[in-house]
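User: tokens in, sequence out, please.
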């Protein structure tokens, strides 16, 4: 089927940055630095979902990585009228050898999730087993999208969790990048980064060299429910695509920031110590998805931190000002007796704040207060 509507990586990008201070992810910097664009790599595997015959999905990359249909899979139509598959309980088995000895990998697919109340529907699973894998799900147990990678099972996952579940009944492009140089796992939706997580896992650690399979589309290595939805293009690159290459895969404009969902926050620090300010804040984007937005805070002069007190750190972006109220102290415990701590609990007749150590408080002080119960 003719697919001229599809744009391939390497063309111009139509993407607007909110400001030079706030960008669409925690790790991505402003575009347009003047550096020459890197030529986009060719995909190692590409399923256009047009060539489905006798239980086989043809690999149009020319590398011979044909997939195998397993279970209930139906042919359907993609967003541009091209071929796609509808997963209703089945999946696509990926052949072995797709990742090779690459340390980086990018998985990119145009997909539509049918929704439902069953969490942990894996869109794809790269790997060998439930100890070595990279996956993405539109909704995990806390009703938010998640991407994770591990080489030591579920307890050692590097996890990237969104703010909400992916929208259902809507075509979108999901891109997951495992970048070994940056030691970062990043998920994009429609060309705009949602969030990132640090990891030192590499692509070659996901699949055993002699494995017959590289993973699956639409299934999990755990007894999770199958992915229910449609898959159009599905690609695997032996490289970490950059943000411009990812954005260029879009048929439309890349979502941009509308407003931050938090403009004020409170932090504390001790005298002489720079406060730890969040590198990102949640932001609402034009496609209705909440993403991490990087914040480049103003520098704090050391003199402002030399004495206890309060100060405000600003960052202005567009029409919205972000500021952090910083409490500088000597590490002492501060209690505001003008504020209530809430209802009395457990039948207690009062609350005592204080510090303790060897010889403090003294026995005379304890007896003078007529303390009946002490809890630490």
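Assistant: Sequence out:
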């Amino acid at each position: 089927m003719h697919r001229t509507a599809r744009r391939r990586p390497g063309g111009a990008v139509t993407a607007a940055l909110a400001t030079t201070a706030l960008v669409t992810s925690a790790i991505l910097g402003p575009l347009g630095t003047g550096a020459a664009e890197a030529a986009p790599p060719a995909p190692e595997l590409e399923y256009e979902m047009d060539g489905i015959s006798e239980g086989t999905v043809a690999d149009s990359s020319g590398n011979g990585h044909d997939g195998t249909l397993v279970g209930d899979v139906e042919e359907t139509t993609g967003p541009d009228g091209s071929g796609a598959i509808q997963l209703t309980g089945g999946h696509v088995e990926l052949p072995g050898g797709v990742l090779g000895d690459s340390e980086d990998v990018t998985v990119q697919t145009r997909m539509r999730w049918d929704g439902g109340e069953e969490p942990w529907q894996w869109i794809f699973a790269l790997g060998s087993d439930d100890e070595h894998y990279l996956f993405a799900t539109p909704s995990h147990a806390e009703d938010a999208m998640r991407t994770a990678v591990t080489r030591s099972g579920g307890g050692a996952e590097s996890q990237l969790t969104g703010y909400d579940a992916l929208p259902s009944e809507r075509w979108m492009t999901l891109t997951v990048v495992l970048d070994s140089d940056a030691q970062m796992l990043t998920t994009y939706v429609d060309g705009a980064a949602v969030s990132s997580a640090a990891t030192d896992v590499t692509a070659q650690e996901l699949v055993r060299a002699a494995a017959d399979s590289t993973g699956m589309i639409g299934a999990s290595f755990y007894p999770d429910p199958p992915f229910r939805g449609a898959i159009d293009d599905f690609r695997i690159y032996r490289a970490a695509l950059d943000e411009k290459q990812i954005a260029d895969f879009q048929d439309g404009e890349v979502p941009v920031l509308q407003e931050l969902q938090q403009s004020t926050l409170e932090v504390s620090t001790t005298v002489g110590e720079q406060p730890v300010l969040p590198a990102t804040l949640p932001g609402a984007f034009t496609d209705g998805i909440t993403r991490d937005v990087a914040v480049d805070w103003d520098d704090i002069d050391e003199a402002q931190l030399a004495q206890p007190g309060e100060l405000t750190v600003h960052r202005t972006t567009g029409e919205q000002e972000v500021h952090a109220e910083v409490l500088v102290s000597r590490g002492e415990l501060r209690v505001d007796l003008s504020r209530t701590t809430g209802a009395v609990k457990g039948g207690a007749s009062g609350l005592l704040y204080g510090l303790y150590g060897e010889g403090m408080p003294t026995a005379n002080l304890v007896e003078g207060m007529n303390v009946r119960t002490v809890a630490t």
